[in-house]
Design goal:
The chain is an alpha+beta fold. The chain contains nine helices and ten strands. Strands 4, 5, 6, 7, 8 and 10 form a six-stranded mixed beta sheet that branches. A four-stranded antiparallel beta sheet has the order 2-1-3-9. Helix 6 packs parallel to helix 8 and helix 7 packs across helix 9. The termini are far apart.
Length: about 290
């Protein structure tokens, strides 16, 4: 990520200038309000009723012009950043944030002195940015984000945001395997789909379209393949695969937790969390009225 010349941080127009400078260099940005948090969704998008933004790797057709959906609002489009809908947010914003994964970088967020000492002893030297309580270590390359990978250490890259605190110092090193390994967790029973997953389908006993059990198995296998083959937009691909399976097989009561587990396993192998899988499944059920 090419670092722009640092701009003095202040409220209002100075934040907008910083955001536009970053966007011009390919860094997707968004405003943060007090407390270092994104602006809340607009009333139409509260609770993700709109389904999200497909161009931001979240399911659904949302075209909301306001800075909704947290990290997914990050953009490099100057017309959006400086639009009247965003201007209201910039007037009261407290900081500029960016989507590290969208900028092709990973931020190792070190929250205290112990975390910094661990990083200096463990991680390759790279560009560092001072923070209020610690440091951000920036690496060239994107990966799955993960919080609490060890005491005082978060990894922020895809589907996350980080505050812009200036360009920092030092050369940006390539993302090392030791950082990628921080987000890898051992499989556990907690990652299985909830046993109540098929409850919303109970009682759906319409005419069964399955000519043979193999018909359902082929449908599940095709959905697994679609998820596994996704190279980008994984979150949206998972949602659409769940929706396709449920639209064909969700009304006759033939789907079981075993079928859902196969789909969840494929999605989690692509980096989706159990919560994201459950949300996508529930959203698909809601859309189909199941």
């Amino acid at each position: 990520m090419t670092q722009p010349t640092p701009i003095r941080r202040a409220a209002g127009p100075h934040l907008l200038d910083t955001a536009l400078a970053l966007a011009a260099r390919g860094v997707p940005v968004l405003p943060l309000r007090a407390g270092k948090v994104p602006f809340g969704n607009c009333p139409a998008c509260t609770g993700n009723r709109c389904g999200g933004r497909p161009n931001m790797k979240t399911p659904g057709p949302c075209t909301c012009p306001t800075p909704c959906h947290a990290w997914a609002a990050a953009t490099t489009h100057p017309g959006v950043i400086a639009s009247p809908a965003w201007a209201r947010a910039w007037r009261v914003a407290a900081a500029v944030a960016y989507h590290p994964g969208g900028a092709g970088v990973t931020v190792v967020d070190l929250d205290n002195g112990d975390a910094i000492a661990w990083a200096r002893a463990t991680l390759p030297a790279t560009r560092t940015v001072p923070t209020t309580r610690g440091e951000h270590w920036l690496y060239r390359g994107a990966m799955q984000s993960a919080n609490g990978v060890r005491p005082g250490v978060d990894v922020k890259s895809t589907m996350a945001y980080a505050r812009w605190l200036g360009p920092g110092a030092g050369a940006t090193a390539a993302l090392p395997d030791v950082v990628r390994a921080l987000a890898v967790k051992e499989p556990s029973a907690a990652r299985r789909p909830p046993q109540t997953l098929s409850v919303p389908l109970t009682g759906q006993r319409g005419e069964c379209p399955h000519r043979t059990p193999a018909y359902l198995d082929r449908g599940i296998a095709m959905a697994e393949q679609r998820i596994t083959a996704a190279r980008e937009g994984v979150h949206a691909t998972v949602y659409r695969a769940f929706l396709a399976v449920l639209s064909t097989h969700g009304r006759c009561g033939c789907l079981t937790d075993t079928h859902a587990a196969r789909l969840f396993t494929a999605a989690q192998a692509k980096g989706e969390s159990l919560r994201h899988c459950t949300d996508a499944w529930t959203n698909a059920l809601d859309r189909l009225g199941l």
